[in-house]
Amino acid sequence: MTAAGELDAREAPSGVHAINIAVVQTESRPGQWQRNIDDVAATVRRLAAEGSDIIVLPEFFASGYDLEGDIPSVAETVPGRTSDALAGLATETGTVLVTALPHRTPEGTVTDSSLVVGPDGLLALGHKRFLWGQENSVFAPGGQSGLLVPTPFGTIGVVICYEAGFPETVRDLARRGADIIAIPSAFGHPRLHVWKLLTRSRALENGVVVAAAGLTGRTGGGPRFAGHSVIVDPRGRTVAELDESVGAVAAVVARNSISEARREVPYLKDLLRLGGIAEHTSTTEKTLERN
Question: Which domains does the chain have, with CATH numbers?
Answer without folding.
Answer: 17-256 (3.60.110.10)
